Amino acid sequence: MTDTFRVGFTSDFWRPDGSSAFGDIALDVLDDAGVPWESIGGAGKFLEGREVETFDALAVLGKTVTADTVANAPRLSIISRYGVGYDNVDVAACTKNGVILVITPEGVRRPMATVNLTYLLALSHRLLEQDRLTRSGGWARKAEFGGTGLTGRTLGVIGLGNIAREFLTIARPLGMRQISHDPWVDPAVAQEMGVELVGLDELMRESDFVVVACALTPQTRHLINAERLAMMKPSAYLISTARGPIVDQAALTRALKDGTIKGAGMDVFEQEPVDPDDPILTLDNVIVSPHGLALTDEWARITGEAALGAMLEVRAGRMPANVVNREVFDSPILKAKLERYRESAR
Questions:
Q1: Measured distance CA(244)–CA(22) in Å, rounded
Q2: I need a surface site. Which of 77, 150, 287, 307 has the fewest CB within 10 A?
Q3: Known catalytic residue at 15
Q4: Which residue, 238, 260, 284, sits at the end of a domain?
Q5: Residue ranges making up the domain that contains 318
Q6: Is 202 a catalytic residue?
Q7: pLDDT of residue 42
Q8: Does the global pTM surpass 0.85?
Q9: Per-residue pLDDT at 3 exceeds 90
Q10: pLDDT > 70: what percent of the chain?
């Protein structure tokens, strides 16, 4: 076994010609440190163990990392997930096999906050409907497509984590009442921000715009279902940008069709990629994007610096920041790997 620390990037980072699909993803962080890297895996959804067995670190986008992946990769010490969601990684298997899983909140905080702001403004002004109207020669009908003024309206955010806090901060000048539901947040944090903590049903009933910004867990799967959609005002909008399965998509489709709510913005779907024949894509009162609206140059650079910087910390035998499975710190397997890296650095 070579002592050279090796990094693998899942194949969804690259275009067919081998160039980065996202521009500058901070590869210079590895190059400057003399750390070799390469693309791994094929076009499939799952990352196979045989594909990663000779790597110490993995940079992961949308590929699924299973128990088989990590169990058959004895050198693997760290997985850096480009983003904050990690439902595509088997966390328990990582911990069992002495593999650190890190996420990159620094890179997604502002880009995802502005995604929510983009949907808020586009929906309130009925931007895409106005666009279609103009292109189809319907100029004279513009009064039929009036928007919703935001001053004094209620903005409800489900979850009050880093992205939600950033979004509410940049949305504050709009003059909206800000409420949130998050049973895990410190009430002092909300109070300092001027955000009112409320129950979920109250948030659904009172909000003119509901933004889903919580994590996907067994408890939040289909948190927004037909019953809760029915609580919303018929003039209200739903913005879903966290994880698709938090929203019952079939129920949302029905609510959009029958006028239970006025419209929606969706960057995420229950099944991704979304089926091109999915009925929700036929509706004019929903704006959709392919779980990629946050993929800006800002996202790429800052996320890359955080993800690859965490790898270099492990290469030096140190624990990185933003670790998901902190219980792995007690793993004898991981401790042995880190000691090997420290000895190699001497």
A1: 22
A2: 150
A3: no
A4: 284
A5: 7-103+296-345
A6: no
A7: 82
A8: yes
A9: no
A10: 99
